[in-house]
Amino acid sequence: MTAPIWFAHDRDRRWRCDPPSPDALAFHRQLPTYSPTPLHSLPDLARELNVGRVFAKDESLRLDLPAFKALGASWAVDRALAGRDDATTVVTATDGNHGRAVARFAREQGRAAQVIVPPGLHPSAVHAIREEGATVTEVDGSYDDAVRAAADFADEHGGVLVQDTSWEGYEEIPRLIVEGYATLFAEIDDQLWQQGLPAPDLILVPTGVGSLLHAALVHYRSAETPDATAVISVEPETAACMAPSLAAGHSVTVPTAHTVLSGLNCGTPSGLAWPFIVGGLDAAVTVTDADAVQAARDLAELGIAAGPCGGAGLAASRGTLCGDGSGSRRRHLHLEDDATVVIIITEGTSANPLPDLAG
Length: 359
Fold this sequence. Notes:
Elements: E1 5-8, H1 23-29, E2 39-41, H2 43-49, E3 53-58, H3 69-81, E4 90-93, H4 97-108, E5 113-117, H5 123-131, E6 135-138, H6 143-157, E7 160-161, H7 172-194, E8 202-206, H8 211-220, E9 230-236, H9 242-248, H10 274-280, E10 283-287, H11 289-301, H12 308-321, H13 326-333, E11 340-345
Parallel strand pairs: 3-11, 4-5, 4-7, 5-6, 8-9, 8-11, 9-10
Antiparallel strand pairs: 1-10, 2-3
């Protein structure tokens, strides 16, 4: 295993934010395809990582789609189209699962979807988006270039942009997407409570632009929640913008390169998420493609069908909690030997098949 790049963020532990809105959770609960996704107990991994408990929140089947993105897309599309009876096209950029989810919920409301993708997206992901009835257009450049192209398309064609990153003047829909993701963390609380356990001591969040991370930080840094959960962002080494941004003291854009962790291949933090990252994040960790894929294969042996992004949290937990320097990292995170660790399996293999990296 390659030693991860670890950035310890010395946050103000008194920092608090408003609690998440309950509206999205209520919306999800009334959907016919809704049920809480599993929280698997993994005692073998707990022994490996020398902690009390490890749980995996398995998002490989969420609202009949193979990734957590369905939570944000369903709520945001519903709100964006509320009260509109025209034939508005729903527009988004994606590096995989978000685009498919937006296309699905646009189709369910009888709307066309235009999905812009960067080069290198796995053909199976492109096919899945088209199977939802969307038009898919590839543009040159990075994910950030695709986002700009989607915004331009929506402006030129009168479409509704449903994007999971924000910038100045575009914040309401990304905020709705974050509200949608909050359902995942409410479920974790309830599932742990049912086992007689409090909130996790550590949660590792695979991170692209930072919307899922934003939702985690709103949940665990709420004024209503004790500050007992350490939160780590997990990024591919080829698209790691969190640590450089925290080191600079402001959001920065980093160049990105190809990664099999396609859902995390983003070079700029969401502007909406940034104040929460500064206020609430404990550490930023990067992982290699090879380590994430190996972690996903190890999860498969435990019965969990994780795609590459889904394996990233386990790879990061190994790099954080084991090996040289792990003692200081644990102290920074205030972790005891009986800690409860939660990793998020953000996608299944049907969303992003595991590649053969041997060649």
